[in-house]
Amino acid sequence: MNLPRTMHAMVTIGHGGFEKLSYETDWPVPTPAKGDVLIEVKACGLNNTDINTRIGWYSKAVTTATDSDTTEEPDGDDPAWGGSPISFPRIQGADVCGIIVAVGEGVSEARIGERIIADDWLRDEDDPKDINRTGYFGSERDGGFAQYTTMPSRNALRVDSTLTDAELATFSCSYSTAEGMLTRASVTSTDTILIPGASGGVGGALVQLAKRRGARVVAMASEAKHEDVRKLGADVLLPRAPSDLRAALGSERITVIADVVGGPHWPTLLDVLERGGRYTCSGAIAGPIVELDLRTLYLRDLSFFGSTVIDQSVMPALIRYIEAGEVRPALAATYPLRELQQAQEAFLAKQHTGNIVVVP
C-alpha cells in the first residue's frame, strides 16, 4: 500500500481556549517505531479528557467546572491527567477506530488490514501493572484527531463487529472508564446504583454496563433526555438536580453511586447512600471542589473509590461485550475533523445525549 507522506490533523499547540487548536493539512504521517502499528483513522471519539487536557483543567490551580469561562491558569506543574506536563504540539484524541496499514519492527505483517479500536492506556512493557508508569493515548503520545496515527501493537485491539466506524469509536474511553468504575466498586446484581449525569458518554455507558451486571439503575439527567436514557436500560429516571433527592428516590435504597459530575450538589449524593455504601468517581465536570462532612464518611461506613487507570482485563472484556452485542453504542453526533471546535462546543453545551465522534 502506497501511503501518503502528509495528512490532515488537528494539532493542539498549548493549554488554553479554542485558539490552541490548529487544523493542519500537511502534517507528517507518523512512522511506526519498533513494536508499533500505523493506523488509518476512520473515526475518533471526543471525551472530557480532550477538553480537560487542552484547557489545563487537571491542574489543582483550576477549580471551576469544565464548561465554565474562567481566568484561572494551570500552574505549569500538573496540568495533565498524570500530574506531569505534556509536550506540545500534541495531536489529541484517544478513541480511535481504524485499520492497521503498516507495522513497525517486531510486529507481524499479518496484522495489516485488521480493524481495531484503541486500548488507551499506555502501560510500561516491563511492568504493566505499575500505574505510576502509565500514560494515555492522545496525551503522552499523539492520538487520533488525524488521518493516521501510531500506537503500540498491544494497544490496537482487533474487533469483529457490524457496527460502523463511528459507532465503534464511542467505546474505548467512555465504556472502559465506566467498566473500570463498576469494577472498583464491585457492583453486582444485589446493588442499586445511582448515576448522576446519565445522559453523557460515561453516564450512558454506566447505565448499560451496570444493567449488564444485573444491578438496578437510578439515572439522573435533564428531563429532556429521559427517554434517551430510558432506552439505555435505566429503571428509574430522576431530574438532573432534584431539590430533595431523598424524597425523589422514594423507597429506593442506594448502595452505590457512580459519579463523573461532582459540583455543588455533591453532598446531597452522599446523604442518600446507604450505610456501608460505595462511592466511585472518575470525573468532576460540574466542579472538582466539593464539601465533605467527614462524619458522613466514617459514621456511615462509606467506601470511596477513585478510578482512573483501569485494570488490564477491562478492554479485552469490553471487546467481548461489543462482539456479543451485550452493549450498544450511544452515538449522538458526528463532525468532520476540521470542525473539532464545533464538536467540542456542542459537547460542552451538552447538546447531545451520548458520545460525539469526529471523522477525518
Automatic annotation (TrEMBL):
Pfam families (alphabetical): ADH_N (PF08240), ADH_zinc_N (PF00107)
Ranges annotated as biased composition (Acidic residues): 69-78
Enoyl reductase (ER) domain mapped to chain residues: 16-358
Top-level EC class as recorded in UniProt: oxidoreductase
Alphabetical list of SUPFAM superfamilies matching this protein: GroES-like, NAD(P)-binding Rossmann-fold domains
Protein EC: 1.1.1.-
GO molecular function annotations of the record: NADPH binding; oxidoreductase activity, acting on NAD(P)H
Protein name in the entry: Starvation-sensing protein RspB
Organism: Pontivivens insulae
